[in-house]
Structures are given as structure tokens and as C-alpha cells.
Amino acid sequence: MKTDGELAREAQSGSRDAFTELLRRHEVTLRSIARAKLGNAESAREVAQEAVYRAFVSIGSLRDSDQVRAWLGRIVANLCTDALRRRVLEERRPAPEGRPTTLFDESLLESLEPLQRQLIVLRFVNDLSYQEMADWLDVPLNQVKWELHKAFEMLRSRVKS
Fold first, then answer.
1. Domains defined along the chain, listed by start
2. Are 45 and 77 a contacting pair, CB within 8 Å?
3. pTM, whole model, 2 decimals?
């Protein structure tokens, strides 16, 4: 079986099959990140589709083919940030009569900060190590540890109350 790096180099040379295999390997993780950050399955699906398009268009700009997983994660994370900005702007507008102003119901996990939700999903759904999460999200390892600590404390306090 070829490594991600080998597939990325082939994709950079124009192999659609290699690019498709890369996406197949990482699609669940990409959607999980988007779902965790956005808290909405439909928005996550849209972001994942846009991420595939952007990755396809810009695969040639990938500098380190061995870091394709982190590169894909950054594309999704950046698109999620954009989507959240748009959501905030939309929520500031008055809602039409009889329509809710939020896009999803609050739940325990969704009450966390977006980065904390992402980290919880990456850790417990995708079984990534702290270092892998840091690489994937392009944040310092200490920030990953601290944000997970804060998320656990918040979840613990909400479960107790």
C-alpha cells in the first residue's frame, strides 16, 4: 500500500486516482473536523465538498507531500473559520418572523468552543495523539493540551450540574 506522501506526489503529477485515494483515506476525518467545528452536519458536508475542490485545485502547491494530512486539515479548518464568520454575520441580522436565529440546537458538546469540539472529536472519534492533533490543526502542542483540559473541565462541570 502506498503512503500518503507517495499518493500526494502522484496526485501532484496529475494522477486523479491517487488524489481520489488520498481523499478516501481522509474523508471521515475531514468531515469529523468540520462537524465538530461547525456543529451542523449540513454545513460540515458543504465545507468538506469545498475542501475537496480546493485541495484538487491547489495540490500542486503542496510543499511537503509527507504532510498531506495536515495540509488537508488546515484547508478544512480555514473553511470552517470562514463559515463560522458568515454564520455570525447572518445571526446578527434579524430572523424572519417565526424562524429561529440559530442554525442548531445546543447540546453538551456543542456548548464547547469550536477548537475544543474539534479536539474532542479528533481525540476520541479519530483516535489521534496530541502531537497529531497539533500537526493537523497547525497549533502548538501545549495549546492542544490546554484546550483539551479546559474542555474536560467544562464538560465535567456541566455533567455535575
1. 4-160 (1.20.140.160)
2. no
3. 0.59
Identity of the residue numbered 20: T
Per-residue pLDDT of the chain (161 residues; tens, 9 = 90+): 999 999 999 999 999 999 999 999 998 888 888 888 888 888 888 999 999 999 999 999 888 988 998 999 989 988 988 888 777 666 655 545 554 444 333 467 778 888 888 888 778 766 778 988 888 788 899 999 999 999 888 888 877 76
Indicate the DSSP class of residue 110.
G
- Identify the DSSP state of 65: G
Q: Round to whole Å and give the CA distance between 83 and 24.
A: 24
Q: Write phi, then psi, for 135 (nearest 5 degrees).
A: -65, -45
d(CA 40, CA 110) in angstroms, rounded, equals 9
Amino acid making up residue 105: D
- Nearest-CA neighbor of 64 among 15, 5, 22? 5
SS3 72: helix
Phi/psi at 129 (nearest 5 deg)?
A: -75, 170
CB 152 within 8 Å of CB 118: no
